[in-house]
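S.,

Sequence below, as promised.
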Amino acid sequence: MKEEPLVSICCLTYNHAPFIKECMDGFLSQKTTFPIEILVHDDASTDGTDSILREYERKYSDKVFPIYEKVNRFSSGCQGQMDIMFNYSRARGKYIASCEGDDYWTDPFKLQKQVDFMESHPEYSVCFHRCKRLDSRTGEMTDDSCWRVLGHRQGGIDVTVDMFLDSWITQPLTMVFRRDKFDFSWQKRYHYYRDMHEIYHLLMVGKGYLFAFVGGVYRLHPGGIASQITQKEYCKVSLPMDREFYHRTHHPQARRIYGATLQACINVYADTNKWKALYYSFIEFAVNCRYKTFGKNIVRIFNGK
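The prediction came back faster than expected:
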């Protein structure tokens, strides 16, 4: 009888032909004492990503289980729910690990380390590790921002909700969480459900842990959904999401995030659309009630200083 997987690796991909082999090889290079399954959702790629996946599916039919869409689901309104709808819903593992098709894992023992920890610490719902950031245009590899909370610690550190929301210290490619701690109803609370919401709720139902080891690479490239966008695009995407997150959770850090996004949008539009910048200034004041900041914004908008 075939043994059930302990970990379900969930991967979303779209037009990742230049990257998907490195991603899949990172999954298959994992050295574990337990079985895994690799669940891939290809969102109607047009660059041959699906053909590459079919090679892996044929060669590793006992591990690799792709879904090939004929119509792009992301553009039809499934944005933040893709993994939930197409991968989490069919996962059989006790744990779920995430990694999108343009990112990749570099440590062959990363899953073993994370699962060993989770198995011996049942009070933890999720754990992460560090990653590198690769700019595909320049080839530059840089560190993530985890050093701000890790300091010189060699093992790791507990991650709280406040710590996570105060500074985005991780990426989904580093995450392993307990499937039985994930509530499918979370997504129904939000119109703009994203990774931030998922990690927030996982940290609300259990403890989180951040390992100090580097286990993967987060790739920035022009085709990435969020890795390289303009400031105006950032405002368009982030403002409604952060506003909704604040109104749904009323968490102090959610208010800070919303206020910071409003301020970023004020700065973006101060010179090009003064009335929009003014509108955002009034909202920022309503959220944070900071008279000095409000005054500076008004001067910045109308005097250009």
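The CA atoms of residues 107 and 215 lie 5 Å apart.

Coffee later?
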